[in-house]
Design goal:
Strand content: 15-25%
Strand order of the largest sheet: 6-8-9-13-12
Number of helices: 10
Number of domains: 3
Structural class: alpha+beta
Oligomer: single chain
Shape: rod-shaped
Distance between the termini: 54 Å
Largest sheet: 5 strands, mixed
Radius of gyration: 44 Å
Length: 448
């Protein structure tokens, strides 16, 4: 009943944590999207402002260039009759309207419009006030027919071209037209610094969101792993505790005769249950010491044949066990390590091989020399480990799904313990596995 309450409590906590996690993710995502949307909206409105301003400046610049061309001809006094009066020009008129009036006067005196002069003035205006861009100057009639043109790097039909048109006759029978290759180059040129800062801010916000999300996921995995570990520990401890309680109940309530022979199985159950609990607590404490760097290794030369011989004898004591060991220690009969910790490493790997294999279990153990190191390989004929799980099986609290048991089993500390011990010896460990075929753990242990 007590353990059931623990599982129900953890289930409720897990459900609340899951809801809070999703709620936080939703709020963070909405905030990020809103922030990027506002930044995009601000950039768009800024673009519209610059676009309208530059196009308006280009219109005014083209009008001023036409006026300059007209006034250049008007100042050519050698070709204008002395005492001539331009009747329609008035001070209260618009500057451009007066320029057209002067142009009509100049035409009546045989001074026609010079597109070449306008080209020179307009080119200088672009260079001074904007930036050099391709354009096409044209003089056209009211139907759009081209009467004269100067082309400077503009395609016939450019989707980005911008056209400015100004009349140069009072009856609007003729127009001057300039087709600018792409005013957007000028717009984006003006916005370059602003765009650079905005892109940097967007990337910075995105990066912060990525880091935050990564940290949340990592914290979630740690929390989930810790919870899984707690549940697994409760589950694993239930069996030995139940055996101890049952045995002590039988012995204390007089349900068993007070004879050594009859009581021996109950004492054995208590002993095994106590040892199992002690093994669990010792493993947890040892891992903590490894993580804190407080473990002192007593390394020495170990005869691997004797070490594995004793280990295999433990597993072969049960005559009903269907386990077959194959060994090869000829190439490297000795390893330099702490025997107490290293035997735990090998026991962990053999336990896993038996746990995740189908009968009959076939385990191959081989040691070989590798320069200044010794390779120790333990291979089984088990159900294999998926590529996804292979990347994280040495992580703390990481557990692999067991199809044999239909669930994730163990504490998630066994292979982490193996990794810590091998690393403390200055070695490395890796796994090679194929689903439904085999798993092979390879340890590289430094020699003396």
């Amino acid at each position: 009943m007590f353990f059931r309450k623990i599982f129900v409590t953890f289930g409720a906590i897990n459900k609340i944590a899951y809801m809070q996690k999703n709620y936080f993710k939703l709020l963070t995502s909405i905030a990020l999207i809103a922030l990027l949307f506002l930044q995009g909206l601000w950039l768009y409105n800024t673009y519209l402002f610059f676009d309208n301003k530059i196009k308006n400046d280009l219109d005014n610049g083209f009008a001023r260039s036409i006026e300059k061309e007209i006034y250049i001809r008007l100042n050519d006094t050698s070709r204008i009759p002395e005492g001539s009066i331009v009747e329609d020009a008035r001070p209260d008129n618009d500057f451009y309207l007066n320029a057209i009036v002067f142009h009509e006067f100049l035409l009546s005196n045989g001074l026609t419009f010079s597109l070449e002069t306008l080209d020179s003035i307009w080119s200088q205006t672009l260079s001074d006030d904007f930036e050099p861009v391709g354009y096409r100057l044209q003089r056209i009639d009211s139907t759009g027919k081209i009467l004269e043109q100067i082309n400077k790097s503009v395609r016939e039909k450019s989707p980005f071209a911008y056209t400015i048109q100004r009349p140069i006759r009072n009856d609007r029978s003729e127009y001057l037209q300039v087709i600018i290759a792409s005013p957007y180059r000028i717009v984006f040129g003006k916005m370059l610094l602003l765009l650079t800062i905005s892109v940097f801010i967007a990337f910075f916000i995105g990066y912060c969101f990525f880091i935050q999300t990564k940290m949340i996921i990592r914290q979630e995995r740690v929390a989930e792993s810790r919870q899984d570990f707690t549940l697994a520990m409760v589950h694993e401890m239930t069996n030995p505790i139940s055996k101890i309680l049952m045995s002590t109940s039988v012995l204390t309530e007089g349900q068993s005769d007070d004879t050594i022979g009859i009581n021996k199985p109950f004492f054995e159950m208590i002993r095994k249950g106590g040892n199992q609990l002690l093994s669990i607590t010792n493993k947890i404490m040892t891992i903590a010491q490894f993580e804190d760097g407080k473990i002192h290794l007593s390394k020495k030369d170990i005869d691997v044949k004797d070490l594995f011989g004793n280990l295999m004898a433990e597993y072969l004591l049960d005559p009903s066990s269907a386990i077959q060991f194959t060994t090869d220690f000829e190439d490297a009969p000795v390893i330099y390590a702490d025997p107490d910790y290293m035997v735990d490493v090998f026991r962990n790997l053999i336990d896993n091989a038996i746990k995740y294999s189908k009968a009959p279990v076939a385990i191959q153990i081989k040691t070989t020399k590798a320069g200044s190191h010794t390779l120790v390989k333990i291979r089984d004929n088990g159900m294999g480990i998926s590529r996804k799980d292979q990347k994280r099986i040495f992580n703390k609290f990481e557990r692999v799904y067991s199809r044999k048991e239909g669930r994730k089993s163990g504490f998630g500390l066994g292979l982490y313990y193996v990794y810590q011990v091998v690393s403390a010896h200055g070695g490395t460990i890796k796994v090679e596995s194929v689903l439904n075929s085999y798993s092979e753990f390879t340890m590289l242990i430094p020699n003396r």
